[in-house]
Specification:
With about 150 residues, this protein is of the alpha/beta class. The chain has one domain: 3-Layer(aba) Sandwich (Rossmann fold). Helices cover about 25% and strands about 20% of the residues. Strands 1, 4, 5, 6, 7 and 8 form a six-stranded mixed beta sheet that branches. The longest helix is centred in the C-terminal third of the chain and has 13 residues, at about 110-120. The N and C termini lie far apart (about 35 Å). This is NADP oxidoreductase, coenzyme F420-dependent protein. It comes from Azotobacter chroococcum NCIMB 8003.
Amino acid sequence: MSEHCTGSHPLRSPARRAGGPVQPRLPAALAGLPDFGGRIVIDANNPIEAPLFRPVELHGRASSEVFAELVPGARVVKAFNHLQPQLVSGAPGAEGGRRVLFLSGDDARARAAVGALIEQLGFFAIDLGPLAVGARLVQFPGGPLPALNLVRFD
């Protein structure tokens, strides 16, 4: 198993069947999947009900805590969810620096691998620690960091 994430793939893609990295888009679609065997899974979700754009009731839990239960055996890292999509998919450079992307997860090696991916993509990674803390900081709605477009100047 590779420690490194190389990108996102649709949930039922050949990469998923072959044991490659996967970035699911809808946590509900994950119910009943087999064990992920220690693979890194990036949670880029926010608990928003589409198309109504209203918060999903999670009874005080972070969305990543709920998500982690749906991907048994996965090393979940929350990342790529706090900025507007056009900022994440656009150029990572901004105003002479690099856009900041936050990440969090309960497995330090998985966080390091996703942090390395973020850096490889040209962004600046900030590790917020375990999901119980970091995921709540970047969760939209509710956290203080969503939509905060920070730039790191080297």
